[in-house]
Amino acid sequence: MIDEMSGPRFFSVSSQEANYYNNPREGWEKIIARFPDSVVDIEEARKCFAFSRYAAAVFHSVQVIEVGLIELGKFLQVVDPKSGWTAVAGALDKVIKKKHQDRTQFEQQNFAFLEQVRGTVEGLKNAWRNKISHTQGKLMLLTSDFNPEIAEEILYASRAFMRRLAEGLP
Fold first, then answer.
1. Cβ–Cβ under 8 Å, residues 94 and 102
2. CB neighbour list of residue 96: distance below 8 Å, 6 or more residues apart
3. Fold of 13-168
4. Where are the domains of the chain?
5. Which residues pair with 138 in a beta bridge?
6. Could you give phi then psi for residue 141, rounded to 5 degrees?
7. What is the number of alpha carbons within 13 Å of residue 108 lying toward its C-beta?
8. Nearest partner of 56 among 66, 43, 67, judged by Cα
9. How far apart, in whole angstroms, are the C-alpha atoms of residue 36 and residue 34?
10. Sign of CA dihedral 94, 100, 105, 106
């Protein structure tokens, strides 16, 4: 403790926060295996949470989800050059709104999964994604009103959504 305190900075974190920092991939292993591009944002989200940087944790959680949505867009064969939230949400909407007989065989075979994911995508988009803006090719938070409970819930919800994609996408 004395050695640590003699350094230029000393941060005290709870044991739970230390676990977030020291084991940032814990509980995310299946997601990382399926979506390796998400690993940096997963680690950053958990480390930011450990140091009470809740807005940053939410930002990185949204980035993790975007990785999953891009993969979902590939599955749906979205042709938008900016595949992500808007393009994928729009593609899901089109499939769900079609009458059964108008859906392709692919859409019919995957309808239950697509319907479930669509509801979650819309909820996430309205609750969190719309609090982030694309400005000059960069994402920025429009609000920093995230307390520890909300930020942690967003981390868990992000993980649940990504786990569903990891298990449901072929």
1. no
2. 114, 115, 118
3. Four Helix Bundle (Hemerythrin (Met), subunit A) (1.20.120)
4. 13-168
5. 135
6. -70, 135
7. 7
8. 43
9. 6
10. positive
Q: CA 41 to CA 143: how far, in whole Å? A: 19
**The two three-digit tokens of residue 126, written as one number:** 């309205």
Helix H or strand E segment including 26: none
**Is the distance from CB of 39 to CB of 25 less than 8 angstroms?**
yes
**pLDDT tens track for 3-54:** 766 777 767 889 988 899 999 999 999 999 999 999 999 999 999 999 999 8
DSSP symbol at 101:
G
pLDDT per position as a tens digit, 44-74: 999 999 999 988 898 899 899 999 999 999 9
Rounded to two decimals, the pTM is 0.81
Name the one residue in this structure whose structure tokens are 């140091």: 51
